[in-house]
Design goal:
alpha+beta; Translation Initiation Factor Eif1; 2 domains; four-stranded antiparallel sheet; 4 helices; elongated; ribosomal protein; mitochondrion; structural constituent of ribosome; ribonucleoprotein
């Protein structure tokens, strides 16, 4: 193939009709039949897990929340959560300690903070820390909290 600068010159001089296009090489049909179809993901070998020392064990992932959202009553609550200026829920995810710690933050709430805190603990299954104007839950819980607040009617 010609470099781009020579291609443009060839096109300008009318020599573009003499240029040939090179196609990607393909396997001949006899060799393709001999090799068979490419392996599928279902036929792939299972990935062997890394060995751990005898004093360690694998951590089983926790469920996102202990109580299903359908089981939590959705009537009037002694607290309220306001939306942000753009109409979104005030739920934020903060990555700390160089990415090793993830915290979900809930802001813009009012009313009975202890009731809100106990409800958050029931929904996420984690302990909730109270700070000035915000509640923090360890882990990524933004989708769960958004569904929960939407179900409550906020």
């Amino acid at each position: 193939r010609l470099p781009n600068s020579q291609m443009t010159m060839a096109a300008a001089t009318g020599a573009a009709s003499r240029m040939t296009r090179v196609l990607k090489a393909q396997l001949p049909p006899q060799l393709r039949a001999k090799l068979g179809p490419p392996p599928l993901a279902a036929n792939a070998m299972p990935v062997r897990q890394k060995r751990l020392p005898p004093n360690m064990e694998r951590k089983i992932r926790e469920k996102a929340f202990l109580i299903p959202l359908e089981d939590i009553p959705s009537g009037p609550k002694p607290f309220h959560v306001m939306r942000s200026r753009m109409g979104n829920y005030p739920i934020y995810t903060d990555v700390r300690n160089g990415g090793s710690k993830v915290v979900t933050i809930l802001r813009k709430f009012g009313g009975d903070v202890e009731a809100l805190k106990s409800e958050l603990q029931a929904v996420t299954g984690k302990t909730v820390a109270t700070y000035h104007g915000r509640l923090e839950v360890n882990g990524r819980h933004q989708p769960i909290l958004s569904k929960w607040l939407h179900r409550l009617g906020f």
